[in-house]
Each structure stands twice: as C-alpha cells, then as structure tokens.
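Project standup — Tuesday

K.O.: blocked on the structure for the chain from last sprint. Re-posting the sequence here as requested.
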Amino acid sequence: MTKPIKRIGVLTSGGDCAGLNAVIRAVAYRAIRTYGWEVFGIVDGTMGLMNRPLQYRMLDLHFFNGNHLREGGTMLGTTNKGDPFNFPMPDGSKRDRSPDFVEGVKLLGLDALVVIGGDGSMRIVSKLCATGNIGMVGVPKTIDNDVHCTDTSVGFSTAANVVTEALDRLQPTAASHHRVMILEVMGRDAGHIALNAGIAGGADVILVPEVPYTLEGVADKIKEVLHGEGRSHALVVVAEGCKTAEGSTPSVSYSGGQTRYGGIGHYLTEQIAALTGAETRVTILGHVQRGGIPSMHDRLLASAFGVHAVDLVAQRRFGRMVAWRDRSVIDVPLDNVTIGARALDPHGALVHTARGLGIYCGEFGEDLESPAECCGPAVVTRDADAAGPETI
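H.V.: unblocked you, prediction finished:
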C-alpha cells in the first residue's frame, strides 16, 4: 500500500528573483487548505537539509501575514554556491554531501519536495532526490527566462519591467545632454531581458549573446540616428554575456577567486565614443533587476505554478516541472528541462519585431540557427478545482 502524503518541503535554490515568496505562499495555501498537509520551508536551499541541525520553518496559515505576495527575494533564503556532490570543506578538501541531503529529508519526514529554481538548480536537486528516491516537482524561476519548455519563468516579468523603467529614466537625461546611453543588463547565456526590455524601452541597439555583431554595425546605427534622423541621443542595451567584437568575454574578478561576467558596457562605451565621436555613458543595473515588488504577471504566474506543483505531488507525478505554455499551466519531464540554458531564437517573433522597428540587433547570416525544440507535447492537468488561470 502506498504511504499517504502528509508532509512536504519547499525550497528556493539558485539566484533570487521577484515572485519566489508568491510561489511559496501558493504551495502552502494549496497543500494546507486543500489537502491538509504539513508544509516545511527549507532555509537556504539545499544547505538547510545538509546542515546539522536542520534549518527549516514550519509554514502554517498563521505564518503568512499578507505581505509575502508583495515582497521580493525569498523568505526562506537561497544559495548558488557549492556542488553537494563535490562540496568544498573548510580544510580545502571536497566531499560528497548528497547523503546528508537525503538524511535531512528523512529526518524531517518529508514525503516530497517542491523545488523552485532554474535549470541548473533543478538539475542538481533532481539528482540529489534521485539518490534517495525522493519525490520532486520543479517550479521554474529565473530573471533570464532561459528555462526550457516554458514560455516564461517566475521573476522574468519584474526584471524586464525594471530594465524598461531604467530606459525610461535614461532617455530624458540622454536627450538633455545629447549622449549615447548604454545600459548593461543581466543575461549570462541568453538575451531575453535585453530584447524584451530593449523593444519596450525604445532602444536603438540591442546586443545579445546569441547574435554576433560588429562595432561598425553599431556605430553606423548610432550615426544614422544622430545624423540621418536628426535625433540628439541614442539608447543601447547589451546583455552582460555578450562577447567583444574580437570574441573575448569580459569578466570581473572578486575576492575569493570568483569570476563573473562584467565589463561589456564599459568596452562598448569606449568603442562607440571612438567610432562616432558621441559622448557616451554606461549604466550597469546588476542586481537591481533581481529585487523589487513582483509584477502582477509574476504574482499570477507564481500562484498558478504553486497550485499546480502541489497537485502534481498529490497525484504522485514526480520528476516533473510545471510550466506555462499557450495560456495554460502544464507540466513537463524534468529530463527535458535540465539540459542547459534556453537560448533566444535569432529568427523568433521578437527579433523580427526589433528589426522591423529598425533596431540594430547584430549581424544575421545563414549560420544562425533557431534553438531546437526539446519538450515534446505538453501535459495539461485540469479539473474544476485545480484549473489554472486562462490568461496571464
């Protein structure tokens, strides 16, 4: 006889973003109000289950004070450091701590886990769960919107709104001083933020990792705007993961030996100024894009995802990730998701829109291929009680 589900855990892993608390809230509400389960929030991602004593919070209906839906970040904390299968120890050695994770789940008496993360986080946690035969359901979150098999992820809408607002604020000062303003945004492997917000914010140049560009092409576009169209200013949006025209990847080293993407905005500032003669400035948004009050879209998406994730647990349909496709909540196999970042389609509708508006988006040759579809048919689970919203 199958053991009934009575207690589940929920954790956030990887980088933070707006909307995480809305997912946690939805998971708790659905699990408690509909199924009568106990819900434990795991503190600091996988670390909460690997540390001793265990780090967790009991999430009952009294825990939620009405503000969590509106708060950015994650009330549970998160981590994006340390591979549990090759974990760095204080003495400099590495150790497989996956048994600590599995033991932690058993010590808490959890019957399943809802994991809120990006493709990397879900790949690691799904592997951890597999080692202990632990049921897991994933919820996609990332400001980069680079998770496979879902049209959008929790956090992307708010981040794109922040970038759009930044362009709205940069445009008046660019016009006042007759400058070229460059905005460097997040987008390590994919240019979804840069493209979406660049179109919405009226950028003249949008540079993304998926499409090569030339400095001459960028300079020609800016000259066309400043001289051919008679406008006194121009806006450039560039994703942090873009390479230089020479093919190198700018990076910044931090204390502790960590290296992060950074510097493409400064590089472009010098090059554009030299090629066009225009006064050029750069703004780097950085982690501002992760924070703030979640947008309406992210709150709705998070709520729909949280409800559907709990329903999957109730149905014991583990090894799945909830997703949004064609205005419906669906679920897909985790194996189809954890294959790396979902790149921007160079021939997609939004790139076509940008080029139709006269925005310079790089050089388009025959060798630019659209990303392969990996997800297969969607699985939609609907009934009168579990139906997701019709539109987001």
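K.O.: great, moving the ticket to review. The domain at 7-154+294-339 is CATH 3.40.50.450 (Rossmann fold). The chain has two domains: 7-154+294-339, 160-289.
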